Structure formats: C-alpha cells, structure tokens
From TrEMBL, chains A, B:
Name by which UniProt lists this protein: HTH-type transcriptional repressor KstR2
Database matches in Pfam families: TetR_C_24, TetR_N
Keyword DNA-binding: yes
Organism annotation: Pseudoprimorskyibacter insulae
DNA-binding region location: 33-52
HTH tetR-type domain boundaries: 10-70
Keywords, comma-separated and alphabetical: DNA-binding
Keyword rRNA-binding: no
Entries under PROSITE patterns matching the protein: HTH_TETR_2 (PS50977)
GO MF term (any one): transcription cis-regulatory region binding
Domain of life where this protein originates: Bacteria
Amino acid sequence: MARTQGSHSDITGPKVRDAALRLFARHGYAAVSMRQIAKEVGVQAGALYNYTPDKQSLLFSLLKGHMDDLLAAWEAEPKAGDALARLEQFTRFHIRSTVKTPEAIFISYMELRNLEPENFAVIEDLRGAYEDQLEQILRSGAETGAFDVPDPKIATMAVIAMLTGVNTWYRHEGRLSLSEVEGIYWDMVRKSVGG
Amino acid sequence: MARTQGSHSDITGPKVRDAALRLFARHGYAAVSMRQIAKEVGVQAGALYNYTPDKQSLLFSLLKGHMDDLLAAWEAEPKAGDALARLEQFTRFHIRSTVKTPEAIFISYMELRNLEPENFAVIEDLRGAYEDQLEQILRSGAETGAFDVPDPKIATMAVIAMLTGVNTWYRHEGRLSLSEVEGIYWDMVRKSVGG
C-alpha cells in the first residue's frame, strides 16, 4: 500500500526527534531513557520502537540530521564572489545557524563521547566536510594575498570556535540584534585573517 | 586532637574529586551515582559522605575549584606592561590553562545546567570575574588607541571562545607544539582587535 501523506509516522517522527533533542540537551544522553522520551512524546514506550531501533540510533540520527541540514543550507546559499565576500557569508551563515539550533549545537559537542565508533566516524566526516568549506575560503584568500593566514586549518578551527561561542551568551531579547552581533564578529573575523 | 598531615581525608579528598571529574566528564553528571564515584575511588558508598554532603556539592566544588584555581593562577602571573603585552599574556595563559584541564573545562560548559540556582550564581560570578580580566585589557587598549574594539564585552566573549576551542582539536602528540599553537592564536587575536 502506498504511504499516505500525514501518516502517523510522518507526524510522530519529528515529535520523537524533538523530544529526544530536548531531553538529551537538558539531562544528557546517558541519563535519558527511551521510556522518558516516550512519555515526553505521549506514546507508549513500545510504540517508540516504530520510529527508532534504539537510543543510540536516535542520537546518531539527531547529530547526522543536524550536520546534513547545515551542509545543505550552506550549499543552498548563493555563492558570493571573492574570498573576502565568501568569508563574510560564512561568518554570518554560521552565526545565524548556530543561534537557530542551540540544543543541536550543544549536543553535537557534548554527546560525541556517547556515539559508537562507526557513528562517531560518520559525524566526524560531516564536521570535517563543513570545516573544509571555511578552510577552502581561507586557502583561496591566502593564495591571492587577500588574507594573511599561515595555517588555514588552525585558522578554520579558531574562527568556527569563535562564531559558535555566540551560543554561550546570545539572547534574542538582549541589547544587540543578531545582525549587530554578526557585524561585530565579521569585523573581528576579517581582521583576524588579515582581510 | 590536631589534624595530622597526610590524614585519610587529605588523601581521599582529591581522589574523590578526580574520580567525580572523570566520571562526570565521561558520562554526564545526571548519569553518575554516588555509588559509582565511591567504587571508582575504592571506598564504600557510605564513606563518600565524609568528603561531600551530596553529588550537587561535589559538582559545585569541582566547578568552583576550577574557577578559583584559574583566577589565582592568572593573579599570580607577573603583570606585563601595556595592553598589547597583557593581551598576549592572557592569550597564552588561557590556552595553556585550557589544554591542561580539558575535563574541567568540558564539565564547566556542559554541567552549568545541572547546578542549583544559588550554585549557578556563584559560578557565573567567578566566570564573570575572569572575563572581566580580559575585558579590562581590551578596554584599556581601546582607550589608548592600541586596539580597535567597538564592543569590548562582545570581543571578550569572542576571544575566549576562540581560545577555549583549542580543546576541541589540540592533541599533545599532534603536528604543532603548544607554543606554536599559542603563536598562531596570538597572531589572530592581536589582529582581530586591531592590535
């Protein structure tokens, strides 16, 4: 039988993911049981296994989904011109993405330790692919002399950490708008690579 | 009776803290029981309560101890001359401290959510006091025109996040020595504030 739109699975799947994300971010993966996730969704514990084989698969699916979404969203950005323009684009994109998904970012750093080795390897590859996007921008700018970046790999890690850190203090109701925050960080990122 | 040096409590106290730090960093605070900590130390669960009233006190004591040590170590540094020299000093100090205590840094970010409100407030104050050290350096450099920092508070958060991020990738056996890493980050930090 053809799968119908809006089926039970289509509706509950995202609910299961949302509940798991919220509970993992709040209590930590190891402290959360499948029973708690089921309760949060409002289904029987047994029903949860229609959506995910186990808790590890759920964690992996959350972290992979987050990285897939991030890479797809970056891919979908209209590519700016030169390295400087692309660096500004990456800076603003990363801050906006980070602020939009604080719980996913939090568990992406915190729960790597709880991924089984083969799952960890997949997530590491995806993170590497994302970091490569910035590294390529820095390398291309360094080649044309637009940037002064002696070690593009380290500079990549430094810039991403700086930008992701916005999550530790940014509040939507705070004294600065997101666009002002982006502007301040862009100024610092640009200068940090001699652009 | 006078307390003798090397008493049971003197020896086991640090062991309890080390075990708790290791287990919290590995599994997360919520997933670790006092019984597990006792087992890791090699004492009966009941004996643990000679050292700490409960798990929350243990977490608080770890996070507070970490911040107290960090502030004391910074205080003990011979103060460098001008704002640029002090910024370099802070940059190298923060990277070295971060790399020395990766587990404490990890739980300092991750387990804030598990501190009871009054404990959270104490840790937040200590973090604020540490951040103030950098903010004052940036402000004093901005006042003399040594730095171009439109928003010293945000610049403080940006620089600290960048430096702390070393922990996500630095390995002692990696291709760069710690001193080389410090040099690369110092170059980026200096440029990022227009120094």
